[in-house]
Design brief:
about 140 residues; alpha/beta; Ribose 5-phosphate Isomerase B, Chain: A; 5-stranded parallel beta sheet; globular
Length: about 140
């Protein structure tokens, strides 16, 4: 089953974004690219805000954000009440972010993981279902405003 995936980031994540976009499309997902369109320096919030809004508005099922450390994109995306953006650097973290936290955006630190790890994390993130149950109560307590 293919998902609608929103993908974006900054200049440091451009190469990984291009690779993941190709792999996701080949796997049958519909991918919307929120930029950037090159590895020229950009301000990541200019790409993260529209992507997060697409996930909030259900124009995308999930998001994938890639920047140098993953922190900037995660901090920006998590400003939205309905977003649970998870900064992951191992496949197990990507899996747990879905199982336990019902994360809807995966944030990847391109300068700290290989392209293979980024691809594996993305695949596992999309394949993993939220467990619900005891975790739902915790997820319900995340929004504060």
């Amino acid at each position: 089953m293919g998902y609608k995936i929103a993908i974006g980031g900054d200049h440091a994540g451009f190469t990984y974004k291009s690779l993941l976009k190709e792999q996701l499309t080949a796997a049958g997902h519909e991918v919307t690219d929120f930029g950037p369109g090159s590895d020229a320096s950009v301000d990541y919030p200019d790409h993260v805000h529209p992507l997060a809004k697409a996930v909030v508005n259900k124009e995308a099922d999930f998001g994938v954000l890639i920047c140098g450390s993953g922190n900037g994109v995660a901090m920006t995306a998590n400003k939205y009440q309905e977003i649970r953006a998870a900064l992951c650097w191992q496949t197990e973290l990507a899996k747990l972010s879905r199982e336990h936290n019902n994360a809807n955006i995966l944030c990847i630190p391109a300068r700290f993981v290989s392209q293979d790890v980024a691809a594996d994390m993305t695949r596992v993130f999309l394949e993993t279902e939220f467990e619900g149950g005891r975790h739902q109560n915790r997820v319900d307590k995340i929004p504060v405003c």
